[in-house]
Amino acid sequence: xxxxxxxxxxxxxxxxxxxxxxxxxxxxxxxxxxxxxxxxxxxxxxxxxxxxxxxxxxxxxxxxxxxxxxxxxxxxxxxxxxxxxxxxxxxxxxxxxxxxxxxxxxxxxxxxxxxxxxxxxxxxxxxxxxxxxxxxxxxxxxxxxxxxxxxxxxxxxxxxxxxxxxxxxxxxxxxxxxxxxxxxxxxxxxxxxxxxxxxxxxxxxxxxxxxxxxxxxxxxxxxxxxxxxxxxxxxxxxxxxxxxxxxxxxxxxxxxxxxxxxxxxxxxxxxxxxxxxxxxxxxxxxxxxxxxxxxxxxxxxxxxxxxxxxxxxxxxxxxxxxxxxxxxxxxxxxxxxxxxxxxxxxxxxxxxxxxxxxxxxxxxxxxxxxxxxxxxxxx
Length: 379
Ligand SMILES: Cc1cc2nc3c(=O)[nH]c(=O)nc-3n(C[C@H](O)[C@H](O)[C@H](O)COP(=O)(O)OP(=O)(O)OC[C@H]3O[C@@H](n4cnc5c(N)ncnc54)[C@H](O)[C@@H]3O)c2cc1C
Hints:
- The structure is a single chain.
- The protein is 52% helix and 16% strand.
- It is of the alpha+beta class.
- The protein folds into three domains: 7-120, Butyryl-Coa Dehydrogenase, subunit A, domain 1 (Orthogonal Bundle), CATH 1.10.540.10; 122-228, Beta Barrel (Butyryl-CoA Dehydrogenase, subunit A, domain 2); 233-378, Butyryl-CoA Dehydrogenase, subunit A, domain 3 (Up-down Bundle).
- Strand 9 and strand 10 form a beta hairpin.
- The longest helix has 37 residues, at 231-267.
- The structure holds flavin-adenine dinucleotide (FAD).
């Protein structure tokens, strides 16, 4: 086992760190306050090659491995977890899905622009009645000649109002349940496809989360990804990889909590000495650092398995479960270390807590990750 970084990984991490500190950090607080989508930052991430990191170069991507992606996403999320999730959805769900199961024609038409950051994608699985129970799809797609007609509502869709292209899971044969679900590529501007409602959120407030509505929305049959009925398998497989991305996002938030806590503890004095000299504070920092390192190891292990073509689903679930818990716990401890200053908006740590919580919910809640892990052991 080699724990050293290769040249590419070091270079990607450094590039992401510099971009995050110099370009993303200055506007983070303001965008969070105004719930403002970081359009220019996303455009620049595309230019850096960070919007389609794992897509082969022939399709406009950077041709990198999942490990490089983890390093980049951790660094970006350390500074702004909203930017992290925008990047994560485009990379691990949309680009990955089309690259893996799309036709040559779909790759030609959509993947190149998505992977190079010229266009942005969204992934629409969740519905008002279908979250953890994602097979309970109410959105329908009825075949009509050379097209399908979509009707229904999708909930909580990241990048939903800004995306040029949305991957939409629908029921094409309700009687078949999970085996009757199909995925379609739907372009923004298709008649019958509208943004229904923007969500106002606790955290990751500058990311774009909306519900989407489909009313007699006609989509060419050529836009179906994979066979009819393959959509649930497609979604679950894609989300397995997505969980590595969310683990990396959580890791970035947790690392930010540790960095802020270390520097504040050295600077803040109580009873005439820095609070860093108090064992109560030292233990919090030691626990935080240990859990962060364990999260990083789990995340990199899942990434390495994925890159080696090995099964990685339960490992990705473990990484997300542990890293997201670590992010929430680290944020709570960081606030405690900052005392009253941790509770106010002027300091960054209250945002870390608001941002951290979502990593325990989306792309499968922590309970669902435990279901995935236990099922792999008990079958
Ligand atoms: C900010 C944000 C962004 C999102 N982005 C996207 C996106 O881009 N695309 C998309 O498709 N979805 C997205 N989601 C939806 C997200 O994936 C779902 O919210 C999540 O899967 C949980 O579903 P739910 O909200 O319906 O909760 P429910 O499924 O109703 O769960 C409620 C509670 O019950 C528990 N529970 C449910 N079933 C089980 C079980 N079998 N065993 C144990 N406990 C269980 C859950 O863990 C949870 O605690 C997003 C959500 C948010 C808030």
